[in-house]
């Protein structure tokens, strides 16, 4: 096939001089820096330059502090760890020793799925996981400056307190 004027011989193939769909477009020669000239980098992501806001740019928002929420979240996490290590662990050990005697009697499934098992094993596990999740939610809300984090922290304290009250009564 004879080559016509203005046609490239490698049409349809990825020739080094031909642009590929995944390659960036070639830079025009006028935009390229010449040897010896400094290269200027412009940050297009920042709306401010040296503390001065660019005209037409949105004003940066100040973080609002939620007083005391960080400390309350810290107390919730520490309280949950103490609850899990000291209180719930004892309940699980007590439940385990009572199940051992029950299994020897012959009713294995009834021993594992009784009310004491739910209150002394399942409830503390749910309370600990729920309190940690609520503490994390309170921490995120605190970082974003929203006061609803207090609700999360109070719900976490309530969850641990409810599990403690129900487990102590059993």
Main traits of this protein?
54% helix, 170 residues, elongated, two-stranded antiparallel ribbon, 2 strands
Explain this structure to me?
The structure is a single chain. By secondary structure, the chain is mainly α. The protein has a domain at 69-169. Helices cover 54% and strands 2% of the residues. It contains 4 helices and 2 strands. The protein has helices spanning 69-105, 108-112, 115-143, 149-169, and strands spanning 48-49, 52-53. A two-stranded antiparallel sheet has the order 1-2. A hairpin with a 2-residue loop joins β1 (48-49) and β2 (52-53). α1 packs antiparallel against α3, α1 (69-105) packs parallel to α4 (149-169) and α3 (115-143) runs antiparallel to α4 (149-169). The longest helix has 37 residues, at 69-105. The model has no long low-confidence stretch (mean pLDDT 76).
A few lines on this structure:
The chain has 170 residues and is mainly α.
Number of helices: 4
Q: Order the strands across the largest sheet as they lie in space.
A: 1-2
User: Helix proportion of residues, in percent?
Assistant: 40-55%
Largest sheet: 2 strands, antiparallel
The string of secondary-structure elements, in order, is EEHHHH
The stretches of 5 or more residues where confidence is low (pLDDT under 50) are none
- In whole angstroms, the N-to-C terminal distance is 93 Å
Q: Let me know the number of strands.
A: 2
How much beta, percentage-wise?
under 5%
If you average the pLDDT, what whole number results?
A: 76
Q: What is the SS-derived class? A: mainly alpha
Which descriptor suits the 3D outline?
A: elongated
Radius of gyration (Å): 33 Å
């Amino acid at each position: 096939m004879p080559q016509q004027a203005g046609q490239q011989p490698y049409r349809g193939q990825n020739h080094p001089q031909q642009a590929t769909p995944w390659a960036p477009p070639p830079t025009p020669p006028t935009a390229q820096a010449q040897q010896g000239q400094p290269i200027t980098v412009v940050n297009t992501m920042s709306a401010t330059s040296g503390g001065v806001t660019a005209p037409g740019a949105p004003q940066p928002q100040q973080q609002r502090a939620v007083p005391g929420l960080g400390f309350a979240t810290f107390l919730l996490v520490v309280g949950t760890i103490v609850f899990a290590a000291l209180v719930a662990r004892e309940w699980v050990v007590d439940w385990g020793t009572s199940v051992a005697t029950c299994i020897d009697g012959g009713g294995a499934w009834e021993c594992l799925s009784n009310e004491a098992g739910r209150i002394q094993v399942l409830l503390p596990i749910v309370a600990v996981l729920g309190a940690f999740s609520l503490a994390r939610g309170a921490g995120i809300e605190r970082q974003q400056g929203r006061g609803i984090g207090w609700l999360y922290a109070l719900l976490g304290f309530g969850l641990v307190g409810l599990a403690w009250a129900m487990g102590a009564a059993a």
